[in-house]
Amino acid sequence: MDFGLSPEQHMLQDSVARYAAESAPLERVRRYAEGADDGSEMWSALVDMGVLGAAVPERAGGLGLGLLDAALVQEQLGAGVVPVDHLPHAVVAQALVRTGASDALAKMLAGEVRYALALSHAVQQREGAGVRAQGDGALEGSSLFAQGLRGAERILTADDQGRLWVVRTSDAEIRMHESIDKTRPLGEVRFQSAPAELIDPSGEALGDLVHVARVLLAADTLGAVQHMLDAAVAYSLEREQFGRVIGSFQAVKHLCAEMAAQIEPARSLMWYAAYAFDHLPDEFALCACHAKAHLDEVGRFVARTATEVHGGMGFTDLLGLHYWFKRIGANRQLLGGPELVREDAALLQDW
Amino acid sequence: MDLTYSDEYVDFRDEVRTFIERHRDQAPIGELSRSRARLAWQRLLIEHGYTARTIPKEYGGYGAEPDILRSRIIAEEFSAARVPMGLADQGISMLVPTLLERGTEEQKRRWIGPTIRGEVVWCQGYSEPGSGSDLASLKTRAEVEGDEFVINGQKIWTSTAKEADMMFCLVRTEPDAPKHQGISYVLIPMDSPGIEVRPLVTMTGHAEFNEVFFTDVRIPTSQIVGERGEGWLVANTTLKHERGMLGDPNAAQAHLQQLVDLMREERADGDRLIDNPALRDRLLKLQGTALAMKFNGLRLLTSSARGEDAKIARLAVKLNGCELNHQIAALAIDALGELGLLYRGDERARDGGGWQWQYMFQLGMIIGGGTAQIQKNIISERGLGMPREPKTGG
């Protein structure tokens, strides 16, 4: 009985944090966001670390760890607002593991074939989005908020029966969105009789994949809110007004305490949800919904409050704090905002 | 991370279950007072190591090595079987650990055994009308006359003063010393001449607390724990234990489950309360927070077993837990609508009017045991390393 991270998990966190600091410092994130860096070096460095297969069994070429380890990687990427598509690949990895697509999995883990994840229509249908199969070899329809499209050769998507398909990016029509979070571009994919490979005819994997993605979004937000709190505390200990550092005023201290008091239990919830995927499957879906919805709420509170502690500086582009603010905001909307996800939690409990 | 128990603990759980099955008929169901049956149950639990587990044998305990997992298994099994756990009043959870750390050999031998057996009931004399958050400014005086302290002053928020045999109390013995260094921790018999206990009726309409007045109360100077002027340090040993008790996530889980049951059973205009989307969403939000606190509790258990300090995860328990309990009661009242107004004694009151009582009482808990604002100071200073507010005066 042990509910804490192992020394190896701390090392994993440290090495991803080091990668983030070295390969994706804020200046580089900014260049990426402004379109002056294509992200390929940051991506290769991530692939070289071998962490894409954190939750993939060793016999399938992964590290043989669990979703918690993948979530710890994502947490550190969120802390550094690193513009790499770890999340869609970690989700696709689970799909390929489930469907026994070992060749495809090996190529993905080696960084030879990159994937985008187009599941937003399976969570909520907007603007007529939706994907239907044409026979057993083609897809028709669209998905609005695909992640990881930049540099991807394949798209993992689901049809209206919940079956999983893989489509070549070259067989889809793609339009990139102007979205608020420039560290993870989103786009719309359209299939017109697009040749596609059916990888999960059962339709049973989709639910888990959405929940895996929700846990990873929660982990990303967790990393980002921790960074924002740390930055707020550090700033409050430098900035002086009325002859004192502002961090000595209770008005400021209490804001920081409220953020910290919300973050730590949320961390425990994220850990548990991720752990449940591998060890407590009956509890996984409900805990994943709660982890997503709860971190969405904590995320909104911290993103706003930490910015406020920074005063006018927090509002500037110069400081770059807004990259975290926007990343947290994007995580909240993706794959179901908190109200939608809580309704899923109600259904799961027959409420 | 591994939430399974090793064989040793699986066996221990079986042992606890067997004990409960075998002795269930002796369990004093629903008896909260110190009846003969309750005290006999307490002695049986001590004998088997299901309470006072780590108190050394020579002081009347079971004498086991601390093992937080075994303690948790005991708590889980007793709670699942709905049989009463060992007593956990302020004497047992606050005074006994303090005596073990700071008491003289004679004090340990005299008080620990009778306290854990439930034969001696204690109350806590800390807060005063003028000394709440600034507890160290307390003014109740103890002056030395020969080999006695003579005590004059007043305490407030004394929860079990009427039933208590004894009080562990903070008094000022060195009026000229700086405020933290002039306090002593003393043990006062509640039947001493000069003590008057007055019930303190709260907003709930009940007297959950008391005021205690001291007029020339005399106790032997040997009734001090630690040295004169060291009382603040001695008391901090116990405050740590109190904050652990307030905001207990298992209590919040139980309240939440009661609320879920209410909202699934109760109907308004023919629909279940839980079918109202606004109420359901609030319930789900609270469920998420309660789960976060529950898993946070698991994390604290592991930190404690590993001998690590969980820092903010621990410091946040009182602040978050009390707020959560308050919010759970608030939703129950809102969901009940006008029926939520009914209080104890009304035949239509749901759950005996207990939700209104909870709503008010939990606000008291947010204020008591270190206000929410004091908790935020502690989190920001000890957890985040932010500076203390510059002190003015004293």
Describe the structure.
The complex is a heterodimer of chains A (351) and B (394). With 351 residues, chain A is an alpha+beta fold. Chain A has three domains: 7-109, Butyryl-Coa Dehydrogenase, subunit A, domain 1 (Orthogonal Bundle), CATH 1.10.540.10; 115-200, Butyryl-CoA Dehydrogenase, subunit A, domain 2 (Beta Barrel), CATH 2.40.110.10; 206-348, Butyryl-CoA Dehydrogenase, subunit A, domain 3. Chain A is 54% helix and 15% strand. Chain A is built from 13 helices and nine strands. Chain A has helices at residues 7-23, 26-33, 40-49, 67-79, 86-98, 102-109, 120-123, 206-236, 250-279, 281-309, 311-315, 322-333, 338-348, and strands spanning 115-118, 130-134, 138-147, 154-158, 164-168, 173-176, 186-200, 240-241, 244-245. In chain A, strands 1, 2, 3, 4, 5, 6 and 7 form a seven-stranded mixed sheet that branches. Chain A has a two-stranded antiparallel ribbon with strand order 8-9. In chain A, helix 4 runs antiparallel to helix 9 (250-279). The termini of chain B are far apart. In chain B, a hairpin with an 8-residue loop joins strand 6 (195-200) and strand 7 (209-220). Chain B is built from twelve helices and ten strands. In chain B, helix 4 (90-102) runs antiparallel to helix 6 and helix 10 runs antiparallel to helix 11. Chain B has three domains: 7-87, no CATH class; 122-229, Butyryl-CoA Dehydrogenase, subunit A, domain 2, CATH 2.40.110; 246-383, Butyryl-CoA Dehydrogenase, subunit A, domain 3 (Up-down Bundle), CATH 1.20.140.10. Chain B is an alpha+beta fold. Chains A and B meet through strand 9, helix 9, helix 10 and helix 13 of A and helix 8, helix 9 and helix 12 of B.
Inertia-based shape of chain A: globular
CATH architecture of the largest domain in chain A: Up-down Bundle
Helix percent band of chain B: 40-55%
Number of helices of chain A: 13
